[in-house]
């Protein structure tokens, strides 16, 4: 699992408000290509908002976010360019319920990327095989388990050929027996060198896969370190307190 010197995401002095509520404060974060970062922290600390800012599902008001050399600003061309390189998987899979698994995976490649249908189907089947559910291609999301639906969501995202994947608590809506199958898929992606930012409280995953763990509280990055140091020698009291609650 190689980490390159090339910068994938550069966030500098970034601040965001919801109205008067200062949700993200002075965020500075550089992510190199090939990094696998786990973000943890108490509920409401701004984790989702931070990763949503990276593909501009949320707008920041100060500082800068540059993804693959493109700055996220009011220029919609830039926003499109960044979104074409960044895939996102949510807690609630957000599949289209009225489309089959295969159609979920081919819709955006065909209509947004203008990929020929035959190629889009081949690509979808390739990624459905990768997440180990090619046999479910003709089913509707409602006919699948939560773990299978989340793997479809990951496959659907991969069909857009992203260079960076963002995960927002992808396993927290799943029954325990389904968590592993989704984490295994994510581990495989990591092993292939995908640049990943994952909001998760799966600390086993963090220890096995992350090269860096970030702890957020009250809209700030409080502490970050490589996993062994982070878990065994947390520096700040907030981090110690958080870890004592979840481990
Ligand atoms: P986390 O993912 O760490 O639980 P969030 O990023 O979802 O935290 O939320 C951070 C804070 O911002 C919370 O206090 C939340 O209530 C608030 N918040 C999130 N989204 C909005 C919104 N669209 N409008 C106003 N406040 C929001
Ligand atoms: Mg969240």
Task: Give a brief description.
This protein has helices at residues 47-54, 76-85, 101-111, 117-130, 146-158, 176-191, 203-209, 227-232, 237-246; strands at 7-18, 21-32, 36-40, 62-67, 70-71, 86-89, 164-168, 195-199, 212-217, 220-225. The protein has 247 residues and is of the alpha/beta class. Keywords: ATP-binding, Nucleotide-binding, Transport.
Descriptive account of the structure:
- With 247 residues, the chain is of the alpha/beta class.
- Helix content is 38%, strand content 26%.
- The chain has 9 helices and 10 strands.
- The chain has helices at residues 47-54, 76-85, 101-111, 117-130, 146-158, 176-191, 203-209, 227-232, 237-246; strands at residues 7-18, 21-32, 36-40, 62-67, 70-71, 86-89, 164-168, 195-199, 212-217, 220-225.
- The strands form 2 sheets. It has a 6-stranded mixed sheet, with helices on both faces. It has a 4-stranded antiparallel sheet with strand order 2-1-4-5, covered by helices on one side.
- Helix 3 crosses helix 4 (117-130), helix 3 packs parallel to helix 5 and helix 4 (117-130) crosses helix 5.
- The model has no long low-confidence stretch (mean pLDDT 96).
- It binds adenosine-5'-diphosphate and magnesium ion (MG).
Descriptive tags:
globular, about 40% helix, alpha/beta, 10 strands, binds adenosine-5'-diphosphate, six-stranded mixed sheet, binds magnesium ion
Number of strands: 10
Note poorly predicted spans: none
Bound molecules: adenosine-5'-diphosphate, magnesium ion
Radius of gyration of CA atoms, rounded to a whole number: 18 Å
Shape: globular
Strand content: 25-35%
Total of DSSP H or I helical runs spanning 4+ residues: 9
What's the average pLDDT? Answer: 96
How far is it from the N-terminal to the C-terminal residue, by CA? 26 Å
The succession of helices and strands, N to C, reads EEEHEEHEHHHEHEHEEHH
Could you say which structural class the secondary elements and strand pairing correspond to? alpha/beta
The order of strands across the largest sheet is: 6-7-8-3-9-10
Helix content: 25-40%
- Give a short account of the largest sheet: 6 strands, mixed
GO molecular function: ATP binding
Family: Belongs to the ABC transporter superfamily.
Domain ABC transporter: 9-243
Protein name: Amino acid ABC transporter ATP-binding protein
């Amino acid at each position: 699992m190689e980490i390159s010197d090339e910068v994938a995401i550069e966030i500098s002095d970034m601040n965001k408000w919801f109205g008067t509520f200062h949700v993200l404060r002075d965020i500075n974060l550089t992510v190199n290509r090939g990094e696998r970062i786990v973000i943890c922290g108490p509920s409401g600390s701004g984790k989702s908002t931070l990763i949503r800012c990276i593909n501009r599902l949320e707008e920041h008001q100060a500082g800068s976010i540059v993804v693959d050399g493109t700055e996220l600003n009011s220029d919609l061309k830039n926003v499109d360019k960044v979104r074409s390189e960044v895939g996102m998987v949510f807690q609630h899979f957000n599949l289209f319920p009225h489309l089959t698994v295969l159609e979920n995976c081919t819709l955006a490649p065909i209509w947004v990327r203008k990929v020929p249908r035959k190629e889009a189907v081949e690509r979808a089947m390739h990624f459905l095989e990768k997440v180990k559910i090619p046999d479910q291609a003709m089913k509707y999301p409602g006919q699948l388990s939560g773990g299978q639906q989340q793997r479809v969501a990951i496959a659907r995202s991969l069909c857009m050929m992203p260079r960076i994947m963002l995960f927002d608590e992808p396993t927290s809506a799943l029954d325990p027996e389904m968590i592993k199958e989704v984490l295994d898929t994510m581990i495989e992606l990591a092993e292939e060198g995908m640049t990943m930012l994952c909001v998760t409280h799966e600390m086993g995953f963090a220890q096995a896969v992350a090269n860096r763990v970030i702890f957020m509280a009250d809209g700030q990055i409080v502490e970050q370190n490589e996993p062994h140091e982070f878990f065994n020698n947390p520096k700040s009291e907030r981090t110690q307190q958080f870890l004592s609650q979840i481990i």
